[in-house]
């Protein structure tokens, strides 16, 4: 079927290419000319503007947004609103906060537009392996997009599904990412312990490879850890600095709002914050307190 | 090749059967007559005593222990010691503490015996899917057992390996289980958050199934979660009570000994302890303190 | 000086009484007739309505709100707005969220009214020992209230201060309570460990008493713990159920917003949530997973 | 009464001086000549050797050890054993592990010697304010030392007590320190949040001073924090590096041994370990994983 893809960054371009390979006609728009050119080379029909993109699509239209969460989604929606017609559908495939998604769905509904939110997992591997899609929205709107989801997913009947009304897709993706933080941190701690045990001289990549087959901890994140360790066994040159992109924070906030204890997901987020604190005031105060009560020497900055 | 298997419980009998299916001759001993009979029905030659087991094996012998960690391993080793001959090998395939393993290896070496420790993961699925084996011991001793490991593992060249000297196998398995605690807790928290979000009416099994394909959090533990949720979507009748079997505790102790911060593995252990505290003194004291300073009402036991 | 006190619950009535004892004239309003009567018996001039209260105060007026955080504060402010005159000051002495305080201050300013927020600590002991007051607002507005603060505080020059602009008082109180959660949890865990060590038969109250003098952990919360343990050494009959009143949640949200790692304050909040989960889904799923991979028996509900 | 003090470091010399000021006769030994000279200047009779120290004491003797925990205590005890006589008492006032204390008490009992363990809190302030003493040992042995404890404590009847048999004193001190870690971390996190809130420009020392009077979080550690912040408001030049001296680790191990969940004490320990990890392997692996699955840029070491 026909689809407009707005945003031709790494994720958007890959998804569009997977759809083209699957026999769909995809028109793509990105504000960057280079992104449009690269997309064209991958079989995506480039549009020079949102107007062109909308004009290229038969009604009822389906427009997929793959733009950064937050203000860019709102800006794109505001620009699209006057261009679209009742009955068209807008899909937000990014990592929007589910409350924003609910708010936007209400606004789009006022204009007779359908909203679908697709929490999308799979990263840069999705082009080849397919994406896991957690979808929110009205049944009929989701159903109309079935051909798209069946192509994006790893297999037509697997790895995608409508999980609930508008917002439910992004909600599920948010929790997915919260879990992801916990899983990653568990592996990271385990490998750190193994690596510190000098007496055994353990080979972390070998252990990751052993675990990939038959062990209780086998997973895709372990596969990736094995690859990372194969390329760079001691992770030389990589700074111990870990970004977070929002969903972990929202998951913690949501757990607290719901009165659900989530100590491990929360601790995983705290560790990421901690990784970026190079001069922790808390630690300095701890050192100062120890000096006050016990006369314990304080290490000087730079020691 | 020939192998003696001591301990024909769930794990021991399954491993022996996988070896028999793979063409090995396995003689099995268990103190329970019923266990021996069932083993015989699965193609394992039963021995009525350790003497019989040792007598049935050609020298140099290989005897695999699959008995509960701790005192049972020591008792079995003491009973075996007078029966074995220099050049024989004893494999401990259970979840022994690596320090015990190192101590036992030294004692066996005094008698000219070889020691191999095999951290074994795979649970009740290992019979069919193969076991992940993390092996410690001298190179030559491990190499002599290659046919055994190649059959137990998911494939001859995958899922097993010698990771270091005596103790290194159990050490690696210990950390494996520490990671496992963290992974499990991350999923458990995530599904708890999803399940508590009444407004979306999410179907947890459906979400687990979606995630199994293409998502960043796909893993074997997720596959198992999906199965558990398929059987019992709300986990009715299951008590919120979580055992632990030692390796998590040891992992935490080891992290601390090595000065490695491991907040998520540690928090996962704490949660298991917490699940078994039905009348937490700490919580009672918190409630009592709030009453003392703020006059906040204390809930009575049974309310 | 003259002060109007709106809200004659435990905190409001105590604070008003402390002011009366200190020589101030306090007019008090509460929607409950019983509360008004009790206040009258304590030297507080009762007002039957907000109109009466405002009418009883000389301009420029000072009206202190001691009502539950959230909607009640907004409702009270809306009712007061038409009654007050430019130059009057409203003090919010409750546990309002600092963002609400900032919003309200802007609204009051539109009407020429001054706002002061007083984070108030001390609980039911404040009547006798004085309150610790963290104050936000314009300098001049705070300064005009100096006689009030000097009487409410433990001593005229101690235990109170203007910490910043509107909202800063409630912000500081919010963090104060976050710290309080952490302190309480640390003591609770420590006493739980002591109490579980059967071999020593430790007397927890005695230990609390010893620590109160000369130890590094001496504190007011320890004093209160000693009192609680003196009354009820094993805390019999107290349910292990711990409420929270919002500031802990806000502190965690604020830490995350500011990218400050706060693992202990966060864990303390999680423990309170956990104390109220009597049938944790997370724990049930952990038990179910263990059953799936290892065949470990699941405890039945009610066992 | 007469007391021998072995170890004239900061703690030992201060305790000896407090005893001398209280009218006791203290003979002190330290391997360092300078320490002995300084002690002499403070009214402590110096002994040039353990032999001299023992010879200077009337039987039954009381010898207080204030030497570093671990091997130094064992070495000192072995050196003292042949010099002492049945009926003499040895007090270990340091931070020994309670299991070592139990082992040593059994060994001393074989020689007819009494053992007393005194968990000692108060740090460098104890000389002036008195020490909090948690005492283990037989009743009669503790009772004989009553004059010593009454002088060391903040007041004769307060701040000290026999809490149980040998080891119970050090056990109680161990948990005391575990709590201390949690309290310190709670304050440290709270002040870090306050300090990061740029919009309010909060003065941390002022806030600490306000809280010291009337607030729920008032404590001695807060008093010390206020002093540290008064001297150095932004803690300039202090490295964010926090040592630990063992009792926190033991408290965590003990909690786990007793199946008591202690998430906050544990997290506090983890934070100290974390403060000393300047190139965390776990964080590097997290960054590498994010790069593998999402193509997220990795920060280079030194960026």
UniProtKB/TrEMBL annotation, chains A, B, C, D:
The keyword Oxidoreductase applies. Pathway: Carbohydrate degradation; pentose phosphate pathway. Pfam families: 6PGD, NAD_binding_2. InterPro entries: 3-OH-isobutyrate_DH-rel_CS (IPR002204), 6-PGluconate_DH-like_C_sf (IPR008927), 6DGDH_YqeC (IPR004849), 6PGD_dom2 (IPR013328), 6PGDH_C (IPR006114), 6PGDH_NADP-bd (IPR006115), NAD(P)-bd_dom_sf (IPR036291), Pgluconate_DH (IPR006183). Keywords: Gluconate utilization, Oxidoreductase. Residues 169-303 form the 6-phosphogluconate dehydrogenase C-terminal domain. NCBIfam families: gnd_rel, PRK09599.1. Belongs to the 6-phosphogluconate dehydrogenase family. This is Decarboxylating 6-phosphogluconate dehydrogenase. It comes from Lysobacter firmicutimachus.
